[in-house]
């Protein structure tokens, strides 16, 4: 009964953590926008006026509160339960962004939210009980067991191979290189090279998976559970990950759609235009760049 109560406490703390962290993204973004409007210089291009913006600091404090709640949740519930629930912060930020920042949440994004919630429910229902830790010596014994030491050694070897062999050759062309290093060691350097919409879901998938694997090996979270419960947890986890990826993929939907309206001309069409009237080609290119003037310009041509 006590273990079930602890799991409930961990679950509630994980939910609160997701709420605070998800809301903090929106609050900080509002603060960044307000600071940029006041100073005329965005943080992304070297502006630091957001440091004087109370709204941004409110968002930062909100995030810290959420991270503390998430940290405490691990004291009551196993990582198999707490870690996947972090995906709910993405739902909170997506929904709040839809209503507060007017960032449209598309049908696939809504489906992603539903999948995250459904997967989380399955994980909560089948989550294992937290194993009671009675002494520091017990933690040391678990950390020095053969299986966990082999896992740590393999992580170190893989990171060294990725850093010194694959990163110099393929780091700028393969997103899995840097996100693999990030997930294994907790760094965030991949964001400097690849689009956030690509890095975030891959990082979440890899980091969450590796965290659960490490927890299962060290704390033996699945010991004593039936095969059906373990399979249910894995299925719920996969559903949460799929929903997370859907949410991230649909973030830049509008931007990508607008870009597709002005896609480059095909080579054959370009050849035909170049072989014809040069003046007409000039106007076609200008029309693509400034569509609002296209109709008036064409009327002048004809």
Which keywords apply here?
disordered C terminus; transport; 14 helices; Probable magnesium transporter; 302 residues; mainly alpha; transmembrane helix; single chain; magnesium
Give your account of this protein's structure:
The protein starts with a helix and ends with a helix. It has 2 domains: 130 residues; 88 residues, no CATH class. With 302 residues, it is mainly α. The protein is globular, with a radius of gyration of 25 Å. The longest helix is centred in the N-terminal third of the chain and has 38 residues.
In whole angstroms, how far apart are the ends?
A: 84 Å
Number of helices: 14
Structural domain count: 2
Which secondary-structure class do the elements indicate?
mainly alpha
Major sheet = none
Low-confidence stretches: 260-302
Rg, Å, rounded: 25 Å
Q: Percentage of helical residues?
A: over 70%
DSSP, total strands = 0
What is the succession of H and E elements?
Answer: HHHHHHHHHHHHHH
From the spread of the alpha carbons, the general shape counts as globular
Give the quaternary arrangement of the chains.
single chain
Task: Report the portion of residues in β strands.
Answer: under 5%
Mean pLDDT metric: 75
């Amino acid at each position: 009964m006590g273990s079930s109560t602890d799991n409930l406490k961990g679950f509630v703390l994980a939910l609160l953590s997701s709420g605070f962290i998800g809301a903090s993204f929106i609050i900080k973004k509002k603060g960044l926008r307000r600071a940029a409007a006041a100073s005329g210089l965005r943080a992304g291009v070297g502006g630091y006026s957001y440091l004087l913006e109370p709204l941004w600091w409110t968002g930062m404090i909100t995030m810290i509160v959420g991270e503390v709640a998430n940290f405490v949740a691990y004291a009551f519930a196993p990582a198999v339960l707490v870690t996947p629930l972090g995906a709910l912060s993405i739902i909170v930020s997506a929904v709040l962004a839809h209503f507060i920042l007017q960032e449209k949440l598309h049908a696939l994004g809504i489906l992603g939210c539903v999948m995250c919630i459904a997967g989380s429910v399955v994980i909560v229902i089948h989550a294992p009980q937290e194993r009671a830790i009675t002494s520091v010596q017990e933690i040391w014994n678990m950390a020095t067991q053969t299986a966990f030491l082999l896992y740590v050694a393999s992580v170190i070897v893989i990171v060294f191979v990725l850093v010194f062999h694959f990163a110099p050759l393929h780091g700028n062309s393969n997103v899995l290189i840097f996100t693999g290093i990030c997930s294994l060691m907790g760094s965030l350097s991949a964001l400097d090279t690849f689009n956030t919409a690509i890095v975030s879901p891959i990082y979440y998938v890899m980091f969450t998976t590796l965290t659960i694997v490490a927890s299962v090996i060290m704390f033996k979270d699945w010991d004593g559970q039936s095969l059906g419960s373990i399979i249910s947890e894995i299925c719920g986890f996969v559903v949460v990950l799929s929903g997370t990826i859907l949410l991230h993929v649909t973030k830049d939907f509008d931007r990508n759609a607008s870009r597709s309206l002005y896609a480059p001309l095909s080579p054959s069409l370009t050849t035909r235009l170049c072989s014809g009237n040069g003046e007409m080609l000039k106007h076609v290119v200008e029309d693509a760049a400034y569509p609002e003037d296209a109709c008036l310009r064409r009327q002048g041509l004809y």
